[in-house]
Amino acid sequence: xxxxxxxxxxxxxxxxxxxxxxxxxxxxxxxxxxxxxxxxxxxxxxxxxxxxxxxxxxxxxxxxxxxxxxxxxxxxxxxxxxxxxxxxxxxxxxxxxxxxxxxxxxxxxxxxxxxxxxxxxxxxxxxxxxxxxxxxxxxxxxxxxxxxxxxxxxxxxxxxxxxxxxxxxxxxxxxxxxxxxxxxxxxxxxxxxxxxxxxxxxxxxxxxxxxxxxx
Length: 215
Known about the structure:
Layout: E1 2-3, H1 17-26, H2 51-55, E2 57-64, E3 71-73, E4 78-79, E5 88-94, H3 99-115, E6 120-126, H4 132-142, E7 150-151, H5 156-160, E8 165-166, E9 168-172, E10 177-183, H6 191-201
Parallel strand pairs: 1-8, 5-6, 6-7
Antiparallel strand pairs: 2-10, 3-4, 3-7, 5-9, 9-10
């Protein structure tokens, strides 16, 4: 698997994600996985500003995430995307040997700290073959205190999602549907990224509802 040094979305062919992203471009001609273009009023369109405007591939209609094997968490348990239904999930594929990944990881950590309480989960999935032995010291050295560790040492999850380059990041809404993707690094806690993610956080059924005590 290669790593990407530009924010341009130049994803090579993959079994699932690449066709989805190619279909996003085909939406200009009215196609997306057999669906017509979404009827989205201008005021409801997700905001794409700055680098996201030219590099984030936004699907005109959210696409169901493919069935994929789970990943391993730091305790050795298996988790999958279905476990996070109800949250907006930013799935980031990275590795310690990927220089652009290393550069953007602190911004993902800050993003989780900022928006976690609003319903965001940053799911940073390590592609290191050494698994926890590689990821855990890296988290410790970088001071990544807000990100959970997710491991995909054999790349099964990444292949199922069609990932061909690192870093690659997918944004899923609270229903577990892919709304868009970016290949390449980004400052994920920058104002443009925060605004985009908050667009989907605000559409969660529980958004804006006050917490209630259980008694």
